[in-house]
Structures are given as C-alpha cells and as structure tokens.
Write a structure and sequence with these properties.
By secondary structure, the protein is an alpha+beta fold. Helix content is 49%, strand content 13%. The protein folds into two domains: 190 residues, Transcription factor LuxR-like, autoinducer-binding domain (Beta-Lactamase, 2-Layer Sandwich), CATH 3.30.450; 73 residues, Winged helix-like DNA-binding domain superfamily/Winged helix DNA-binding domain (Arc Repressor Mutant, subunit A).
Length: 289
C-alpha cells in the first residue's frame, strides 16, 4: 500500500520563488487582459496543474471562456466546443453556480451528487477526455455574474495530492481578491472583447435558464415528475439521493425511472444522456417514433 501524501510538507524554495515572481507579474497586470495568463502561471508555479480554464459565468447564459492552457489537442473538441455549447448544462459546478454557490475554493467531490462519479456525464466529459477531477475558484462579481477558475487533473494519471489542495485553499483569499480587482479595473472587459468569436459557442436557444432547459426535455411524453427524475439522474444522483431531493420513496423513483425509460424507448442512463445531449444540439427532444 502506498503512503498517504504528506500534506504538511513545505513548498520548496524554488517553488516559492517561482510563485512570487509570477504573482508579481500578475499584480502588475491586474488591469490588463494579460492578467489571467500571469495568474495561471502563478498557480502552476505553486503546485503542478495539468490544465486550466477560466470562464465568465453569467446567470441563465452559457459560460464564456476567457483563458485556457494545457488542454491536449485530441480532447479540445470535447472539452471546449462540446462543453461550452451544451455539456455545461450537466456540470456540477455550473449547476451549483446557477443555484447561488458561494464564492470560494471547491474540489469536485465537495459539490458533486452522490453518484456523479458513475454518471454518463462524468464518463463523457471527464474520463473520456483524459481527466479525473477538478478544483475551482469561484469569485462573485455581481448578483448575476462570477468568474470561475477551473484546474483539471488526471491526464497523467495523477490526482491532486493533499498538499496541493492545501496550498490551493491557502491562497484562496489572494486569488479571489486579484480576480475581483481584474474585473473592477477593466481588465475583464478587455479580455471579453479580445475573445475570438468561437469563444462563445452556444446558439441563442441555449440562452435559457438551466432549470427550464431540463424541464422541457421529453415534452410532451414525460410527466413533470418523470422530467424531474430524468434531470436528477443526468446530474449524477443515485436512486436514494433522488428520493431524498424529491421527498418520495426509492421505490417510487424506480417506478418513475422505468416509466420514463419506456416512454423514451431507452434502457440505460447512457441512452438517456445521449438523448438529452442530442435534444440540446437539435433544439428539440430526440425521441423514438
């Protein structure tokens, strides 16, 4: 059995110097579009981070990509194009942000539903794209918008160590304050204006509230309760968790799940996931005749 990671090990002098050097560059550019590049470099100097995405999150709208690094070319379409056009609607962080997640630092396991790591979403947007986990900084800009800084791990087979998570949590106040200043001094607007047309990939019909998108899936075949259960299954809730959320029995959940699978002519969560993604892509349910 391998030893547990030493979360008390201090940051090396080399790492500390690299962190401070990159942090100084970020501070000097806090009012410029290049700030995000320097902040990402500083965090990568603090602890190894395989890939990173920084996005502007606005309530009821798709996230807008502001910065990305380290994403392997073979996975770019899945991670960038597909995620930002439709996959985000099932992402636990995006859903939590939409529901009013408080600013701070979060690891995926902090907010994911109980069966998320067995869900089709996790298999499609994490494991199939070489990732295993991620951590986020979330900073509030105003009641309708936030900046999210997502750090992915798993392409190398390595996960965040306890020490890495401890370091990332330790610098949370500084990272959040720097992101707030970046937004308030005009750097954010520069970055948004510099974004390529492809950075916001979702068509107009995705500019819906997330709950409305979920609750119109399967119309008119599914009942309201069946759509609620489909929603929770897609998000990664187990039967037990779904029952708790809806305040019904697990047996009732299983009955509704059987009924909705029959109405959609499917036999598995994988098929449910495929129909939901296809419906988002086409702007209508992809139901069997």
């Amino acid at each position: 059995m391998s030893a547990s990671p030493d979360i008390t090990a201090p940051l090396s002098l080399h790492g500390l110097l690299a962190w401070h050097a990159s942090l100084a560059q970020a501070l000097s550019a806090v009012d410029q579009a290049t700030f995000l590049d320097h902040l990402a470099a500083a965090l990568s100097a603090l602890t190894p981070i395989e890939s990173m995405m920084i996005s502007l999150e606005r309530k009821g709208l798709p996230p807008q990509l502001l910065h990305e690094q380290g994403i392997v070319g073979a996975y770019r379409d899945e991670i960038i194009n597909r995620y930002f056009s439709r996959g985000y609607l099932l992402d636990p962080f995006c859903l939590a942000v939409e529901s009013g997640l408080a600013e701070g630092f979060y690891h995926l396991s902090d907010i994911a539903p109980d069966d998320f790591f067995s869900s089709e979403y996790y298999k499609t947007y994490y494991l199939k794209t070489g990732g295993a986990e991620d951590s986020y900084y979330i900073v509030d800009l105003d009641p309708q918008s936030k900046i999210s800084l997502c750090m992915f791990q798993g392409l190398s087979g390595e996960r965040f160590t306890g020490q890495a998570l401890q370091l990332l949590r330790a610098v949370e106040p500084l990272v959040l304050e720097l992101l707030r200043r970046f937004a308030s001094t005009g750097g954010l607007q520069q970055r948004v204006h510099q974004a390529t047309p492809g950075a916001v990939l979702a068509p107009a019909e995705f500019n819906l509230r997330i709950e409305a998108a979920f609750m119109s899936f399967g119309t008119p075949l599914l009942t309201v309760r069946e759509r609620e259960i489909a929603h929770l299954i897609l998000r990664g809730h187990s039967v037990k968790s779904t029952a708790k959320v809806l305040q019904i029995s697990p047996e009732t959940v299983r009955m509704h799940r059987k009924n909705l699978y029959g109405k959609l002519a499917i036999n598995s969560q994988a098929e449910l996931f495929a129909q939901f993604i296809d419906w988002l892509t086409q702007g209508r349910p992809a139901l069997a005749d």
